[in-house]
Amino acid sequence: METITQTNTKKVSKPFKIYQVLIPIALGLIVIGWLFLDEFDPAVFFAFDFNYLSVLFILLALLLMSMRDFGMMWRFRLLTDKDLTWTQAFHINVLSEFTSAVTPAAVGGSSLVVIFLIKEGINAGRSTTIMFVNLFLDELFFLIVCPIVFLFIPLDQLFNSSSVIVSTFSVVFTGLYFTRLIWTTTMFIGIFRRPSWIKHILLTLFKLPLLNKLLDKVELLTNNLVQASNDIGNRSYAFWFKAFGMTLLTWSARFLVVNAVFMAFNPVHINHLVVFARQLILWVFMVVSPTPGGSGVTEYAFKEYYSDVFSSSSAIIFVTLVWRMISYYLYLLIGVMVIPNWIKKSFSKNNVE
Q: Which of 19, 43, 68, 347 is deepest in the core (most CB within 10 A)?
C-alpha cells in the first residue's frame, strides 16, 4: 500500500511548454502580418459581400474539419478492433494533431501515435503496426487520388503558372511524388509481405555495443510487431475497403475546407476541382516544411498558390488567415485544453501499474 501511495504522488511532468504553442502561432501571424503590411488595401474588406451565406460556408468548413476528425477516430477504432473507446480515439486524434502542429512534420503526430496508443493500453508491437498502417493508408490516398484528379486539369491551372515561385512546384512535386511512391511500396512490403525483414533489421541494429542493453525489449517488440502485421495482413477485403473509405473521407473533408472558405468570400467564378487539386500539391510542401506545423511557410505558399483565385492580394491574405484559423490554430486551442488532463491521467495510471 505504501508503494502505491508513493507512486501516485509522483510528480507528472508538464506535457508541453508554452513556447511550443506560441512559436508556431507567432511564425504564422508574423508572415500574415508581413504580407498585410506589404499588400494591404482597406477597400478590399468593404468589397466583400459577407452575408448569411458566408456564415453558412464558414460553418460548413468547421463541419468538414469535424468530419475529418470523426474519420480519424473511426479508423483508430477499426484498426484496434474497437479496443479503443470513442473517448480514447478522440484523445489520440487530438494528441496527434496537436503534436503535428507544434513540431516539424518529420517529427509530427503520426510518428508519435505509437506512444499515444501504448498509453491507451495497446501493446508496443501492435501500436507500431497501426502507426505504419495509418501512414500507408494516408500515402495510398495521395498516390491514387493525385493522378486521377490531375487528369482533368491542365498543368498551367494546376500549378498556377502566373506565379514565379509556384512555377517551380511542378518539378519539386514530381520528385516528391516518386519518393513517396518508393516509401509507400517499402511500407507495403514491410507490413503485409515481409514483416520479418523489419524484425531482422531492428535486432541487427540493437546488437550494436551501445544498444545491446535494450535487445531483450526490442526482441519482444519485434515479436509483437510480426504477430500484429500477420494479423493485419489476413484481414478481409471488406475491412480494407472500410479503412480506405474512411481515409478517403478524412482527407477529402480536410482539403474541401479550402473550397468552403473560398465560397464564403468569393462565391462565383471558382473552379472547385482546381482548388481541391492544388491542396493535394500544397500538402506535400507542408509535410516537408522545417517549421512547426508548417507555420510561416504554409501561409506564404498558400497565398502565392491561390493568388489567381482572387483579384486582390489583400483578399487572399485575409482568406489565408481564416483557413489557418479553422484548420490549424483551432487544433492548438483544443490541444491546450484537452492534453494536460490526459497526460496527468495517463501517466498516473501507468505509474500505479
A: 68
